[in-house]
Task: structure prediction
Amino acid sequence: MITSETRRRDFPALQGMTYLNTAAESIPPACVGEALQTYWRDKLRGMKGREAHYAQMEECREIAARTIRLSSEEVSFCSCSAEAYNLLATALNLQPCDEVVITDLDFPSGATPWLSFPTRPKVKLWHAQDGALLSEDLVPLLSEQTRLVQISLVSFYNGHRIAWAPFVQAVRKHAPQALISVDVTQALGRIALECSDADCIISSTHKWVLGIHGGCIVGIPQRHAARITTHAGGWFHLTNAFAADRFERAIPKTGAASFSVGMPNFAAIYALNAGLRYIESFGVEKIASYADPLVETLHRGIIGLGLKAMAPYEPGHSSGIIAVQHPQSAAIHAGLEQENIHVMHSAGRLRISIHGYNTVHEVEHFLKSLHQILRSLR
Result:
């Protein structure tokens, strides 16, 4: 997808290292750095730079909406997925009689707000079986009282990619009052999305979309704008922030716009705009068609070394992540670091992630080094 020449030009930081950790942090292309310089120049104009800031935000809203397959009016920004989910909790205002379903493969940002709210709803946990979430295990958890089902399209933990169609069918049939919220942080920019029929779409910006910290995309379809409107203080999301009645009531904009409660992080928006447009210049489908065979090579190599992926591998329905467990994972990670090979290590788990800027040479180098480290540990 990226030639050796364009890789050196667009990702100079990748020279001399094997970076297989995009699921934690991406390596942004040079155009993102240039976008941040543009932000800096605009910021140096003081108040006159605001016009450029807002123009960038509208450009970013347009490309973000196209990427998650919604309209610009259905997309907004906040600072991170944790903020987005806490704001979503204010919008839903769930009560003890309501039920929420979360999964044991979800990131804490999407799972914990429902455990923390003063009027805590009943939370049900959808357990993975052999690393996968099965719709038949979800059905008994659903009821007329279910108000929200929260999932990740791709799990940060083990790379499991949910089977979207049977999942949605199960929720719509057995919990007709429930909203579906999906975290696409580990999918957006890496796999073609299949979740535009979700009721809430949330993504951080510093991973596969090649942006930086301090940004989050929020997508709320117009059909749910009134139902999913936050109840938070602030000003940017209010229709009457500076009106005569501003000390008597706060009137929020509806839907996605209500999630932008304060001054936008324009630096993150400049970066996101550039990152998304870089990805679009190739196309997510092309990125997947290039990177998925690298994931398959990685999976075959791991199996050949006697290891087992933590999530089932499905050709044609994979993510960019393979995770394995090993009792000597810390020693393995240290050995890889000595070889300038970067993967994620946490609590006995090694997580390897592959994006469009990775190469077959890097995957082979990782597997060869892993083989040598495993032999030395016997």
